[in-house]
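quick one
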Amino acid sequence: IPENLYKDISTEKIREVVIGKGEKAIKIGGENILPFYFFEGSMGNEIKIAMEILDVKPEEWPQSLAKYFSDVFHDPALWAKKCVEVYKAEAICLYLQGTDPNYLDLDVNHAKEVVKKVRDAIEVPLIIWGSGNSEKDVEILKEVAELIGERGAVIGPVLDTNYRTLGAIAMGYNLPIIASTPIDVNLAKQLNILLENMGVPLDKIIIDPSIGALGYGIEYAYSVMERIRIAALYYKDTALQSPFVCAIGREVWGTKEVQLPTDEIFGDQEGRGILMEAITAVVLALAGGNLLIMRHPKAIELCKSFFNILSMS
Amino acid sequence: MALTGIQILKYLPKTNCKECGFSTCMAFAMKVASGQAEIDACPYIDPKIKEEIAEALAPPIRKVELGGGNYVYFLGGESVLFRHDKRFENPPLIGTLISTNMKDEEISRRIGLYKKLQWERVGTILRLDTLFLQDEGSEERFIEIVKKVRNELPWVALVLASSDVGTLKKAIEICNNFKPLIYGANSQNFEDFANFSLSTKVPLTIIGESLDEVCSLSEKAFKKGLKELVLDPGSQVLRELFEDLVIIRKSAIKSRFKLLGFPVITFPYRYTDSDLLEILIASMIICKYGSIIILSDLKPEALFNLLIERMNIYTDPQKPMVVEEGIYPINGPDENSLVAITCNFALTYFIVSGEIEASRVPTWLLIKDTDGLSVLTAWAAGKFGADTIAPFVKKCGIEEKVKHRNLIIPGYLAGIKGELEDELPDWKIIVGPREASGIPSFFKKFYEE
Ligand code: B12
Ligand code: SF4
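structure w/ iron/sulfur cluster:
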């Protein structure tokens, strides 16, 4: 069959963003095709998966997930180390959940201490993800950035309400940032433009489209990501030519389905959670996800082999 | 669409006789053009022209019908590459296979699972809807299995696979008016299978070893007048399967390339030995254009996830699923029972009402119309703040149903408590848990107090 019946070659490309520094640094983005449309071009860099750890002991993780880490829950540094050494994580996302004013409201000193310990325990690239509270994140990330400046770690989420301060901090230390908007093409574009206007280079921006888990609004994220990617590659919308990060673990492992016990109808509890996380990851990777943040070691392993065989000719 | 109402009108007699059920030929033509009426409904058009019109109006991925009676399924009928362009129409059928080589116990186990594995989600029943029956050269056993399956699983659409047309003929007779899919015609047996499908009017799978071979077979099928086709592109490795699925869909939709404008049947287990990877492959096929997915076995935890994914991807992006505004009694409430409020997004309603049911606490659940937006989305969109909740609580009639004035609001709305108390001075506002999973313990405790 003639190629012109189906081929759409893009002249554009998603920007490559480097996370971390030195040997262990990883690159995301760089594709000029929709995910895995190899017959039209190249994926640039492979999809990367970062393992998520918390600054505090998780309270609501089901046993089927917690059992892999409960021996290190008390110490984020050991936890990070375990992810790298045992589960071969290529990046770590430290989620500062404990600093959330609506949760434990832990202070800057707590955050600094945890970040320092984790930083020193591992060499792989780091992503520091604040609580999502606009003001508190400014307070925390301002101080934290200094600790990780040398490491080229990613900080976020940068929102339309705090982008000025966080953007300036990131520029100061030359850090990549996560630009977070609620599942909306125009809001994502607008935030990127605002950041660019204040001098943040576009190759330092990763878009967080705010995703939902399988069964919890995933279809909205799926379509918004597809639309952003199509605008970036086929309508030359340069402000949208950034890679995507998807915070999958926290959405999946907070749902009811991963908590339901094993039974005949809903099947094995752990297998159900693993597949829910892995399928969420696959669906969002097909929509353009470049950096996936996940929790369960088996779901991660599974996704890696899936992306691998899907890329093998 | 390829034809406008005006173009269709040219072929109509313009007598406005109303036999089609519309008041004028013009009205009818418009409905046909928008896909809301069938051209067949007008008895006064030359059959040849009818066919041409039907052809021009057909979606680029042709619609193939399986089953019958209460259980009709459509494959294909798709007209977009991305769900946000309009919507995906007909969700892929998902099931497993049964072969004549399997032991009786294994066959019964599989049939048992079809009956047992059903889940309710946002008001819809999720269950398996297809079964691939493989004849390994023992006609008698095959027929026996077909009978058993038709008897025990009347809703399940069948794919009948055999290399013997004679066997298939008998099997189809058993199915009576319940249309199965035949699997299938390849380049060796093409003539026999094509003639068979033509005479029985049963849809046929075309099995190629490459897209080129599929095209040459579907071209031959076209020449014979066969239109109800399903494709098996015979992809060898996963990457090829993905590319084949995308190329088939793109060439049909972008270029209206007819030879590939058909639904596709897939077998994820062909590409891996791992049952978990098989499920991820199936999840990819749901997003990327498969119409039938045959799995090697049935694992509840895997199917549950896949069926939810299918529901998510195939919801209409223009219409979130909603429930009606109003007062919903749960667990037989009376004048002393709890009152709680949430939005009318179907997903939220089903999660919240499910948890309240599980708590066994008698409750009046108020559902406020938020245009199908979730709690926080609706709040952010200005549809679920104190200014809209207060008038709703006053006018909905709950004040006549209960003696007390305690209203439980979702934990995520904690920020509007004060404002809501100002707007509803008679009411005490209680902030519930954030996640619905916290409802049972919270409601029990509060009810006891
Ligand atoms: C999918 C989604 C959308 C979809 C809409 C989906 C829908 N039908 O509502 C779309 C893309 C349209 C959308 C749009 C917007 N969204 Co939106 N969206 C989401 C997302 C990803 C998931 C929402 C969801 O479906 N949740 C699942 C349902 C079941 O949750 P729920 O209704 O809250 O119910 C739970 C609890 O609240 C609780 N509960 C519910 N009722 C009750 C009742 C009682 C009594 C109790 C005790 C508990 C309880 O139980 C449920 C299960 O635990 C969230 C982020 C996230 N991951 O959560 C953002 C989010 C809700 N959106 C947000 C925003 C800002 C918007 C927009 C304003 C952005 C814009 N474009 O301008 C628009 C507004 C809509 C508009 N103008 O039309 C923000 C809200 C921020 C905030 N804190 O206020 C969020 C949180 C994203 C973010 N982090 O910024 N969104
Ligand atoms: S049946 Fe045919 S002729 Fe009669 S009104 Fe309808 S379209 Fe016109």
